[in-house]
Amino acid sequence: MSTIRFLRILTIRAMSSSSSSSSSWSCNKCTFLNSASQKLNCMICLAPVSLPSSSPSPSLSISTNDEAKWACKACTFLNTYKNSICDVCGTRLPTSSLLGFDDLTDSGLESNNPASSVGSVFFPLRRCSKRKAMDDDVVEVDGASVVCSESQGVMKKNKEIETKGVASDSGTPLTCLKILSYNVWFREDLELNLRMRAIGHLIQLHSPDLICFQEVTPEIYDIFRKSNWWKAYSCSVSVDVAVSRGYYCMLLSKLGVKSFSSKSFGNSIMGRELSIAEVEVPGRKPLVFATSHLESPCPGPPKWDQMFSRERVEQAKEAIEILRPNTNVIFGGDMNWDDKLDGKFPLADKWVDVWEVLKPGDLGFTYDTKANPMLSGNRALQKRLDRILCRLDDYKLGGIEMVGKEAIPGLSYEKEKKVRGEIKKLELPVLPSDHFGLLLTLSPK
Fold first, then answer.
1. pTM given for the model
2. Which H or E element spans position 12?
3. DSSP 24
4. What is the mean pLDDT of each run of 10 residues along the chain (445 residues)?
5. What parts of the sequence cross the membrane (predicted)?
6. Are 407 and 373 in contact, with CB atoms under 8 Å apart?
């Protein structure tokens, strides 16, 4: 924060505490109570005075903007959830202020709630860059050409992202390839360290070559980065960018990375994007893998109809269109997909939904309040939100399984649930995430 801005905030606070309500006026943008002597602009956000026609002097005005906002703890300015950093003082929105699905559904809502069939619920995150990702941003990383964008955090310095994967022409040709897609759950107040360690144990157990993560927060990034398994992977998100965003998707690769890139979805109010990596597979054809966290349903009062299905479907179509030119491509992530609401996933020719091909007849719920005992205190919900989709000319599908279905031994948490008007405390086990992960195995043709 600049010194001038800091001094301005201190002055404002002093003036606010000494002024009375009868001699002040409320800004219609940020609701700050300005003194009567402040006649032209709000001293917090500099918004012009809103003058009612019946009075020549500033008076109380009420904002008609219904958009949800969060109050900055440092300066009290009301920011929209599009911004994870305060517009006035630069303070970051605490991750605990972001709602998860269980936070909404545990508010005593009864079964007549029309939004009972929705998927995970999240507030929007801020767009991380004022400019759109440019296709021609190219830097060199360990001699390889890397396409980059500001949102992915690949800067024009080799040292920003260290590629640790094996070279494409080294070692014995791979006989199988493992890809993990996992929404790690950004809820930081529920045994975060132990949950992330459990995910790390799954990574060490299955040793995936490629990883697609969703809902990574700065704290989760830091935990992962300090883990022993991290050293084997190249990461698509730099340290500087990782600490500046609310939550995001992230790609990790053991293989040699030819490029990392990202494309923001123009219709997203939640800052959602498509993250892409091109990797060199030893002795095999190159492979593209990508991830995304498509627009989330956000039902809330008064209408409970903010499902964002149209935006989600458009994002799915755009992602497939971007990836279509590749002959060997895997797209895994939290699609927030609801077949009843969104219809069939819009796959292009030669593309398949891996779970449908390898597990026909298996519903494959990755968010499941019945199968996941940690969520048993929530309203019943079973959805196949997470998917792995692919088009493969030079590889063939091996198998797919869910991971992270076992409770962490010796760990539990208390949860309050309203049952027939009475609040009851439940002791529930803790799993690595509220979602199950998907582990895909490929082999060359």
1. 0.68
2. helix 3-18
3. E
4. 48 46 61 68 68 42 50 70 69 56 41 40 37 36 38 36 45 88 96 98 98 98 98 97 95 97 96 97 95 92 84 98 97 97 96 98 97 94 97 97 97 90 92 98 94
5. none
6. yes
